[in-house]
Amino acid sequence: MINLWLTLIPFVGTTLGSSLVFFLKKDLKEPIKKALIGFAAGVMIAAAIFSLILPSIEEAKAQEIPVIWLPAAIGFTCGMFFLLIFDSLVPHIHLDNKEEGVKTKLSKDKLLFLSVTLHNIPEGLAVGALLAAFINNSNVSYMALLSLVIGIAIQNIPEGTIVTLPMYSNNKNKKKSFLYGFISGIVEPISALLMFFLVDYLNFLLPYFLSFAAGAMLYVVIEELIPESQTGKHSNVATISLMIGFVLMMILDIALG
Questions:
Q1: What is the DSSP string of 180-218?
Q2: Helix axes 108-135, 70-89, angle to 10 degrees
Q3: Of 154, 164, 183, 220, which is most buried, counting CB atoms within 10 Å of its CB?
Q4: Coil, helix or strand for 106?
Q5: What's the pLDDT score for residue 95?
Q6: pTM for the model
Q7: Are 159 and 14 in contact (CB under 8 A)?
């Protein structure tokens, strides 16, 4: 249980990113914003593959499941549909801050808050699933777990900044904007702990839960981050940043794991 503190590290990343609203006077320039979104997408793609899907297949081998790819396929698909349903039910707007298609009485700040909260759920699920895999003596090493936690925390810093700065542009209140960003990050340790205790109780479903987190994570990348990074100008900056984020997370996972 002593390792449960690891679930707080991604939350710290979101908090640090949100706190930058106190030091930056205006919204980020478009190339910087594109670079940060692309980087976050690259980290999440690599984390889904190297930290979740591959361990899911290895765990299926360890459990001597006849069709080793089946748990990964089923879990991944369920994770995708979980976020699809969640995305449909929760009113929110995309990172481009356009309210097109959103019909609700909620303020723009609250819609942005719900958006980043939705993004943080699969990250928490991923940490919780991998933490349970490590504690249950599966094929996941402590360093592999640590690399995932660090990678998510790193990409949460720009993610927190991208969200809180537009809030500040809307409400002109730095404390309120930071508070929104801070609270949105709380969902990460909560979802991580929920996943951890669920996997700990249903250990035989571990390969399914690992790939479930991967499916949820990639849904966010494909639905939100990639479209936003490729819209308008400077899409090449986002593409390069995505590849850098992917390589960095891959190195973290393989070198440390």
A1: HHHHHHHHHHHHHHHHHHHHHHSGGGHHHHHHHHHHHHH
A2: 160
A3: 164
A4: coil
A5: 53
A6: 0.84
A7: yes
